[in-house]
Amino acid sequence: MQIRYSVDYADISRKAALIIAAQVQIKPHSVLGLATGSTPIGTYKELIRFHHEEDLDFSKVKSVNLDEYYGLGPDHEQSYHYFMRQNFFDHINIHLENTHVPDGLTADVSKTCAEYDAMVASLGGTDIQLLGIGDNGHIAFNEPHSFFFANTHLVDLNEETIKANARFFASENEVPRQAITMGMRSILSAKLILLLASGPKKAAAIGQMIHGPVDPQLPASILQLHPNVMVIADREALALA
Ligand code: F6R
Q1: Which end of the chain has a smaller Cβ tally under 10 Å, C or N?
Q2: Residue 176 falls within a domain, yes or no?
Q3: Quick one: which atom of ligand 1 is closest to the CA of 139?
């Protein structure tokens, strides 16, 4: 695991965006694994800037997102479909048909999940997988106690995650209780994993991810077994690393 210290959130975002931009320049048909949440927003802003100011071209890029709330449609303002359009896709020249986010309104969850894994496999896995980390060490919505090698599946969000995500909703009651999440198998099929973390709330999870045992209680600890992980984080997030 390679650790890259950053001075602040802007520095994390710049470093991550530079790596993703280089990937897209070297391989225009790259498959990018993307995340939502607060952490990657600065990275998306930098990539949008590179698109406008440096002609970074996303026209051949394909993308695969980690997760979606179960029960939210693409036009719901808190859905991850909506988030991705608003924070990234609508501002670059990626073709929307080349972007993939799990269908939160599916009537057939197991079919949707199986098709999502098959789609990721058919793309050859992701070239870069961008990840945030939950305060409890989750990645995507693979919560503590999850079996490490689940495929894409429907998951019950735990109380900690519901509380952490309530800031995006009018009240905690409105946070969906379930999500469709990519499983560890697809996440770990990435050639490079870029995990970003900022702020003191992430310190315990980051410390355990790096130094703790590989244990499903701290889902991100599985990344110790991946050959190509780069953690880009500020000093607060790395305080216990
Ligand atoms: C988002 C995702 C989540 C977040 C994590 C951290 O697609 O899969 O695992 O990365 O909850 O969220 P933030 O960045 O809001 O702290």
Answers
A1: N
A2: yes
A3: 9
